[in-house]
TrEMBL record:
InterPro entries: HAD-like_hydrolase_domain, HAD-like_sf, HAD-SF_hydro_IA, HAD-SF_hydro_IA_REG-2-like, HAD-SF_hydro_IA_REG-2-like_cap, HAD_sf. Belongs to the HAD-like hydrolase superfamily. SUPFAM superfamilies: HAD-like. This is Haloacid dehalogenase-like hydrolase domain-containing protein 3. It holds the Pfam family Hydrolase. It comes from Urocolius indicus. GO terms for cellular component: nucleus. Gene3D superfamilies: HAD superfamily/HAD-like, Haloacid dehalogenase-like hydrolase.
């Protein structure tokens, strides 16, 4: 039987948009422009460590500590460079500001295959659509610059709502904005725990975007798996 759905919610990073190149490469290029030579592989490793530590210490962009995403990210970038062996604090301050702004630019992001076309066709079919993302407040800007914002009736970010997926309150907020009970809504995302399981825990339908060759977690029926975004519409009908 075809699903009766009225609202679709979407994760963004690695579902609709992805970084054009690894973080280490972007950071290394920005550093070179300031005359600093730091190997991309070193920066990639250092970034994972700095990001992980900061996420543990100050969850959700340090909202609880009064940080906010800008100061949160500046600290992550500077710590990344320090861990990779760069020590010129003046240069790191400039680099951090530059990278924080730069990651809003469309140049750093690319669409996943089928993203724009799928969103367009879902709009044409009359679905109400929203974003449910653990991203910070720059997401609105990124969606505008990547020419995607107009597809969505609402955009919920972890920083703005104060909750992060898999917290059910994130999805409850989306349902109330969508104006439907959970059984008339589906969430599309690439993360098993934060997207698929979390949406299903509130009674929504879930679709898991899974590139070929990536293993599947237990308990995800094949009809809930999307090898690409173009597989979504054939599986649902308003």
């Amino acid at each position: 039987a075809m699903l009766k759905l009225r609202v679709l919610t979407w994760d963004v990073k690695d579902t609709l948009l992805r970084l054009r190149r690894p973080v280490g490469q972007s950071y290394a290029a920005a550093a070179r422009a300031q005359g600093l030579r730091v190997p991309p592989e070193e920066l990639e490793r250092a970034f994972r460590a700095a990001y992980g530590a900061q996420s543990q210490r100050c969850p959700n962009y340090g909202r609880g500590q009064g940080l906010g995403s800008r100061r949160w990210w500046l600290a992550v970038v500077k710590e990344t460079f320090r861990l990779a062996g760069a020590s010129d604090e003046g240069a790191l301050e400039l680099l951090a500001e530059h990278l924080y702004r730069d990651f809003c630019g469309a140049g750093n992001w690319e669409e996943l295959p089928g993203a724009a076309e799928t969103l367009e066709r879902c709009r044409q079919r009359g679905f109400r659509m929203g974003v449910v993302s653990n991203f910070d407040e720059r997401l609105e800007d990124i969606l505008h610059r990547c020419r995607m914002r107009h597809h969505f009736d609402f955009v919920l970010t972890a920083e703005a709502t104060g909750f992060a997926k898999p917290d059910r309150r994130m999805f409850e907020r989306a349902l109330s904005l969508g104006g439907v009970p959970p059984e008339l809504a589906a969430h599309v995302g690439d993360d098993y725990t934060r997207d698929y399981r979390a949406a299903r825990a509130v009674g929504m339908h879930g679709f898991l975007l899974r590139a070929a060759g990536r293993g599947l977690e237990p308990g995800v029926p094949p009809e809930h798996v999307l090898p690409t975004l173009s597989h979504l519409l054939p599986r649902i009908q308003k």
